[in-house]
Amino acid sequence: MIESLRGGLIVSCQAYPGEPLRDPRAMALIAQSAAEGGAVGIRAQGLDDIRLIHEAVALPQIGLWKVGAGGVFITPTLEHALAVVAAGAEIVAIDGTRRPRPDGLSLAETIAAIHEQTGALVMADAGSFDDGLAAQDAGADIVGTTLSGYTDEGPTSSGPDLELVATLSNRLIVPVFAEGRIHTPEHARAAIDAGAFAVVVGTAITHPATITSWFAEAIRA
């Protein structure tokens, strides 16, 4: 299944709380559109979204469950991870940083339990090179650059962290997925050129409010 994602685009179909598209049916339709456009996989948040997308789209799905908005909030516990897999995700994305987890389990214990209890694959969302290395050592099947710029280890840039993509791709054995602030096709191509196994794009494809604001701000400028 991972090989089917090589060199491809994974579309992250998520909406923020309070937005008009914060509806599992809307996310399933967006996922279907992404599949028609050439996506090789879907990333989705929330159990209802994951279930509907699993039913509607015949592509591998990376599922996650966000709890809160700070600290370890991407599928923070083993319980959350097991629920994500039960909802239909073939790959579960979890916080892959070295920060303490809310349920007291280590990253390695969490990954081992997911593998043993479900057989699903695990994508570790990392924020730095050290996170990525530790996640690989903990048994992660995939390492993503998702949290680069969103932890205390470095500033947030306006574009993708291609340096981290390149460093992880050169040093890790497991596939590295580029994710985070990939806003243009050129960014996506640059991530592949930097060594990414696959590229995950969300906002620039599936978030109309942000895309509209980019155009509106450019016109006003």
From TrEMBL:
Family: Belongs to the NanE family.
This enzyme's EC code(s): 5.1.3.9
Record-linked PANTHER family: N-ACETYLMANNOSAMINE-6-PHOSPHATE 2-EPIMERASE-RELATED
Protein name as annotated: Putative N-acetylmannosamine-6-phosphate 2-epimerase
Keywords: Carbohydrate metabolism, Isomerase
Signal peptide bounds: none
InterPro entries noted in UniProt: Aldolase_TIM, NanE, RibuloseP-bd_barrel
Pfam family for this entry, one: NanE
Provenance organism: Leifsonia kafniensis
Reactions performed catalytically: an N-acyl-D-glucosamine 6-phosphate = an N-acyl-D-mannosamine 6-phosphate
Pathway linked to the protein: Amino-sugar metabolism; N-acetylneuraminate degradation; D-fructose 6-phosphate from N-acetylneuraminate: step 3/5
Role description: Converts N-acetylmannosamine-6-phosphate (ManNAc-6-P) to N-acetylglucosamine-6-phosphate (GlcNAc-6-P).
